């Protein structure tokens, strides 16, 4: 009987652990090397790939999305009560009124004749 009721005695194993000095890395051969001397492939435990976005980045994106949603909801409320104007759609306008005026080309000969004549 154990302290918390019926239990079993665990198996005990001796674990061998290699530890290097600070700034050194354990190689595949079991020896410690300086960081500049050994490549990632030659490490006993190679470093993994870095994540695309960290947890802090994801938190910032989600906070910005929530803020954008709040702004849109507030804008709709203000438009409903008349404090903000509703954005006008560009489809209602006719092309002729918004287009630039047309320019007609004049040849050099007609300008010379007008000037002389």
Describe what you observe in this structure.
The protein is mostly helical and 117 residues long. Among the domains are: 34 residues, no CATH class; 33 residues. The chain is built from three helices and two strands; from the N terminus they run ββααα. Strand 1 and strand 2 form a beta hairpin. It starts with 23 loop residues before the first strand and ends with a helix. 1% of the residues are buried. The model has no long low-confidence stretch (mean pLDDT 84).
**End-to-end span in angstroms?**
126 Å
Largest sheet: 2 strands, antiparallel
What is the mean predicted local confidence, pLDDT? 84
Total DSSP helices: 3
Low-confidence stretches: none
Helix content: 25-40%
Query: Would you count the extended β strands for me?
Result: 2
Strand content: 5-15%
Order of helix and strand elements from N to C terminus: EEHHH
Radius of gyration: 38 Å
Strand adjacency order, main sheet: 1-2
Class by alpha and beta content? mainly alpha
Task: Describe the global form.
Answer: elongated
């Amino acid at each position: 009987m154990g302290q918390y009721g019926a239990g079993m005695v665990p198996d005990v194993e001796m674990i061998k652990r290699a530890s290097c000095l600070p700034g050194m890395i354990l190689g595949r051969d079991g020896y410690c090397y300086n960081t500049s001397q050994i490549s990632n492939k030659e490490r006993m435990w190679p470093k993994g790939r870095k994540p695309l976005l960290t947890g802090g980045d994801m938190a910032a994106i989600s906070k910005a999305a929530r803020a954008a949603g709040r702004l849109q909801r507030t804008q709709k409320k203000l438009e409903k009560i008349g404090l903000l104007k509703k954005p006008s759609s560009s489809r209602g306008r006719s092309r002729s009124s918004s287009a630039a005026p047309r320019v007609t080309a004049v040849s050099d000969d007609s300008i010379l004749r007008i000037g002389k004549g």
